[in-house]
Write a structure and sequence with these properties.
homodimer, 2 domains, DNA-binding
DNA sequence: TTCGAAACGGATTGGTCGCTCCGGTTGTTG
DNA sequence: CAACAACCGGAGCGACCAATCCGTTTCGAA
């Protein structure tokens, strides 16, 4: 999973073309940075005009670097994705399989809590995006290892599946959203409370049989694809 | 119910004025009905034009009856609210305090699952709406009774508070939303799975202390008010 | 049956959005 | 330094939206 390279060489290519001019590279960077903050603060409904303004460039420049608002958003999310990958790696490196699982969920929730764009995009968007499906598959494979191990150790309920994690995170996102999101007066950790409840809910102790079986990976992706096609 | 008739007599008032004309009353009804279906199917972002079309009236007519899209939405939600109130009453009438609590949560979740408008509006909107705050206060009082009783019976964790329920429902809403919402191919009960996990999470058995204390009622309303003012 | 008030409907307004287009500017190369 | 391709900015386009306005139709009381 550690193949982030390909990505930020000083000569940045679009296809196979020649390196970008110096000012172009600088502007691209500014746009990306502005988009990160703006999306984080206002969610994915923030307007591209606002982003361009904050970046100090014209909208034309913005769209030359990112042909679509959606492309820009995806580029913005990369950081969070990498963060999650790191968290999963850390988790798998630990002996304590419960702590590892809890750590991953906590990190994901933290990202959602501080970045409204991530919160809006994750779930539907994340799994629907064709350009991300390969990466998603890898991520799911790691998550499966994590969950299987925890189950083998008897620290989570028997019927928990890796495919549940995205949904549990969406659930947490729901709580986070109404808890009061980023940049608001008195930024709150209230979501941690509900993460705590969910964590207790996936523990084995006194687990009640779940009424519906877990989604398969296919269901997960298919479902999200159709959801984003609105 | 028939002699005071402040409410749904055949002569429906707006303020203190004279009764509506027959066609007006019929159209108002049609609009409300169309709005219910459309909001349920498409969420609160559905356009008023679409609603008017489905109702077979002009937008002018729609706006005469409901001065604002928001007013129309609120009128639409009434049904769900009533349903919740009934569920709470039923719950309080039962001896089994755990079953009662679970019942209320289930009913709320069912409403969210079949009505995307409700799903979108609940949480932020619901508690922020000034015109609903009185009703919300009543509802919270009933919920408090429910939770206190369950706690006294030892069937839920000690640190659960009534104020947590709205957030837990929002959480469930998050899962429901990404599960695939209403009117979609293969309408799913997957959310029941996560409701199950949350229910286990609020049980006392092996409960881990929660990292953040519950929100006060003031925090709850204040937070939502600011959220909706975007 | 008459007639005025009430209700209707949809063209229109004012606004926002993502995105395009093109005349002007700037970096780079020889 | 010259000269051209690459790059910039922002006015403008088309689409959508909630909400308004006003000429026309319909109801129902007299």
């Amino acid at each position: 999973m550690s193949s982030p390279a390909v990505h930020s060489g000083p000569g940045e290519h679009d296809h196979e073309s020649r390196p970008l001019r110096a000012d172009a590279r600088r502007n691209r960077e500014r746009v990306l940075e502005a988009a990160s903050t703006v999306f984080a603060e206002e969610g994915i409904e923030a307007s591209v005009a606002e982003i361009a303004r904050r970046a100090g460039v014209g909208v034309g420049t913005l769209f030359r670097h990112f042909p679509t608002k959606h492309d820009l958003l995806l580029a913005t999310l990369e950081v969070g994705f990498d963060e999650i990958v790191v968290a999963v790696d850390e988790a798998l490196a630990t002996d304590d399989s419960w702590a590892g699982l809890a750590h991953v969920l906590t990190v994901c929730a933290e990202i959602q809590a501080r970045d409204r764009g991530f919160l809006d995009a994750v779930g539907p968007e994340l799994f629907a995006e064709p350009s991300l499906q390969l990466r998603n598959a890898e991520r799911m494979e790691l998550l499966t290892r994590l969950v299987e191990r925890a189950r083998a150790d008897g620290v989570v309920r028997d019927d928990l599946r890796a495919e549940d994690l995205p949904f549990l995170l969406s659930a947490l996102g729901g709580a986070t959203r109404t808890c009061g999101n980023t940049q608001q007066a008195a930024p709150t950790d209230l979501w941690r409370r509900y993460l705590g409840i969910i964590l207790d809910g996936i523990r084995p102790s006194g687990a009640t049989p779940l009424p519906v079986s877990a989604p398969t990976l296919e269901q997960l992706t298919a479902r999200c694809r159709s959801a984003s096609g609105s």
